[in-house]
Amino acid sequence: MTKTKISVAGLGYVGLSVAVLLARHHRVVGLDLDADRVALLQQGTSPIHDPEISRFLASEELDLTFTTDPATAHADAEFVVIATPTNYDPETTYFDTSSVEAVITQVRELNPDTTMVVKSTVPVGFIQDVRARLGTDDVLFSPEFLREGQALADNLRPSRIVVGERSERGRRFAELLLEGADVDDVPVLLTEPTEAEAIKLFANTYLAMRVAYFNELDSFALARGLDTRQIIEGVSLDPRIGDHYNNPSFGYGGYCLPKDSKQLLANYSDVPQTLIRAVVEANATRKDYIADDVLARDPEVVGIHRLIMKAGSDNFRESSVQGVMQRLVERGVEVIVHEPELDAETFGGCEVVNDLAVFKARADVVVANRFTDDLADVAEKVYTRDLSGTD
């Protein structure tokens, strides 16, 4: 079998998981501007927490190399996958796509005959706009539907593959993704670029809406002294609703759901709507309610147990517990933080206490988005809305 050369620009959890997937059968060069990250990968060590990525780097036969040199990465590549960060800018109310556009410009100079596939999350209409502004039709969009900490697992067993172009090269890229997967019966959808962008944002906003719904159900139960677990169980017995993704939390968080729901809201600027705005506002309301409920216990010291977004992740960007923490700090309560992933003395103006025994002894209330076994001995101190230990 003739191998296709593919380069992947941006080696975060999206880019690295895609690079590993494709390198099972093809020649892949991963590119990142972070020399330390590349050095780790060259040693076979994953810079992100993802068990499957670590296992594949250590034991799988992958045709995968890493570099900080764009010319080495992109030369002769049939496809260039772009997975650079696109953070949400609250001032412009849009994703910052400058890193994606920089890669497109660079690739056009180094390898004008390649096809570029954007995996980064972008605003609805981005591909049409960038094609017109940068003068190229060789840019496609293929959304990712991955969970942090399980990105490679989700690529190996994808729920669906979506490519935003109805063309031979669009089908070819979908086949490359499918070839690397461990399952064959994967729905493949080739669609228009703007529809593919909308699929990504609407999918994540629906998930945010579901989180917000069960959190508001929980807030109602708390306010009325009801059993949240019984209510959720009864509601979820309806097969149209289902018993999944229904565990209360402090709000939706992480890298994708907050920014994607806000971006979708921005795209609705000239379209009548109320639901999308309500989803975004519900997240703030939930954190307000949780902070008030914690303060109702009259603690002198509140301990925040873990800043990470969820179990199995090493990332605490936009984690919901940080919103609760900020509200507690603003109310004048002493807040301490336990986060083993954090090598610092303070975080957000709060003292970091990574000796767990000391942390538990000092905190009057331990706030935990998800209950873990290491809190069992102080369960009476723990404030959590976690009912099932799931996401």
TrEMBL record:
The membrane spanning regions, by residue number, are none
What keywords would UniProt list here?
Answer: NAD, Oxidoreductase
Q: NAD: is it a keyword of this entry?
A: yes
- Indicate whether Transmembrane helix appears among the record's keywords: no
List the signal peptide residues: none
* Top-tier EC class: oxidoreductase
SUPFAM superfamilies (UniProt xref): 6-phosphogluconate dehydrogenase C-terminal domain-like, NAD(P)-binding Rossmann-fold domains, UDP-glucose/GDP-mannose dehydrogenase C-terminal domain
Q: Which InterPro entries match?
A: 6-PGluconate_DH-like_C_sf (IPR008927), 6PGD_dom2 (IPR013328), NAD(P)-bd_dom_sf (IPR036291), UDP-Glc/GDP-Man (IPR017476), UDP-Glc/GDP-Man_DH_C (IPR014027), UDP-Glc/GDP-Man_DH_C_sf (IPR036220), UDP-Glc/GDP-Man_DH_dimer (IPR014026), UDP-Glc/GDP-Man_DH_N (IPR001732)
Pfam families in UniProt: UDPG_MGDP_dh, UDPG_MGDP_dh_C, UDPG_MGDP_dh_N
- What catalytic activity is recorded? UDP-alpha-D-glucose + 2 NAD(+) + H2O = UDP-alpha-D-glucuronate + 2 NADH + 3 H(+)
**Pathway this chain belongs to:** Nucleotide-sugar biosynthesis; UDP-alpha-D-glucuronate biosynthesis; UDP-alpha-D-glucuronate from UDP-alpha-D-glucose: step 1/1
E.C. no: 1.1.1.22
Domain (UDP-glucose/GDP-mannose dehydrogenase C-terminal): residue spans on this chain: 303-390
* Record family assignment: Belongs to the UDP-glucose/GDP-mannose dehydrogenase family.
Protein's UniProt name: UDP-glucose 6-dehydrogenase
